[in-house]
Amino acid sequence: MRVLITGGNGFVGKYAVSRMQEMDWEVIRPSLDVSNSGRWLYLDGANKIDAVVHLAALLMIDGHKPEDYFRVNTLGTSNALEFAKRNKIPKFIYAMTHSDTNRCSNTYITDDEVQAYGTNSFENNAIPFIASKIAAADMVDAYTRQGILHGVNLRLANIRGYGSQDTKFNSFFHQFIAKAQKGEEIEVWGNPPKTQRDMVYVKDVVEAIIRAIKYPDVEGWYNIGSGIGMTIKEEIESIISVFSSLGRKSKIRLRPDKEEIRTKSCIFLIDKAKKDFGWEPKYSYRAGLKDMKKHMEKT
Question: Phi and psi dihedrals of 132, rounded to 5?
């Protein structure tokens, strides 16, 4: 199998490249990334490529300008699709944000859920980011409807794993791990905390990409998540069990006087991926943390 990956040096991309190389797949990482021209003209006429895996994007967490989100995420995807068209590449895998459904009234999100989105903060230009990703996914759909290629939009739940982009922003997840490692108390807000989120381990995401490539006729939208919701308290309990030492185990301090930050539960139904290309997550939340810890200890 010969696969071209954009964003091969990113969080998911590094895991994808490593896994594919383990499988003896040939992986091409263009020297000109999608954030520049995305055309990779030097590859035109090259040996047959079986699939494009389009992971390159500007992320909301980095807070870019609206015009940059559309230039990279939308126009960059258009360039990648045109490259696939010119070179008659049959499969195109697109990594889609789960944020396009963050204002859906349903707790359980189907693969073909009607998009509804918003934001609690406009500081990072969240709306332009989400809109740029939706526009890109719409183009993948259009090329698929035209019979140009088999496009797959993978709606990815919250991804956990070592090397994630939010590490440098010291997110709550990484703060909890640091506290657990030191045996410090961790607060849980809410009375009781009941909002649930769906999280998936990065290696399970990679296996979904690989399976979507292996099944040549698969196309359309697919949720890639755990299919299971977890409250913040359940997350913290797992983090403590994995990262706290026996002698200095963190305690949870319940704070019902403080309002829970999360306000909406969101769980992604994954039956379609199971049915169409035989994918389902292999890592539980706790098992993913254990594997993440191994990677951390190696560095």
Answer: -65, -35
The separation between CA 201 and the C-alpha centre of its own chain, rounded to angstroms, equals 9
Q: Which residue do the tokens 């992971």 mark?
A: 55
**Residue 155 DSSP class:** E
Locate 11 and state its tokens: 């969080």
- Produce one character per residue of 61-75: b if its CB has 16 or more CB atoms within 10 Å, e if not: eeebeeebbbbbbbb
Residue 24: count of CB within 10 angstroms of its CB: 7
Q: Kindly tell me the burial class for residue 193, based on how many C-beta atoms sit within 10 Å of its own C-beta (0-12, 13-18, 19 or more).
A: buried
Residue 15 CA to residue 224 CA, distance in Å, equals: 16
pLDDT tens per residue, range 31-45: 655 444 445 444 555
Strand pairing partners for 109?
Answer: 268
The rounded distance, in Å, linking the Cα atoms of 232 and 5 is 34
Q: Assign domain 2-163+198-227+264-283 to its CATH superfamily.
A: NAD(P)-binding Rossmann-like Domain (3.40.50.720)
pLDDT, tens digit (0-9, with 9 covering 90-100), for 81-136 = 999 999 999 999 999 999 999 999 999 999 999 899 988 665 678 899 999 999 99
Query: Residue ranges per domain, the chain?
Result: 2-163+198-227+264-283
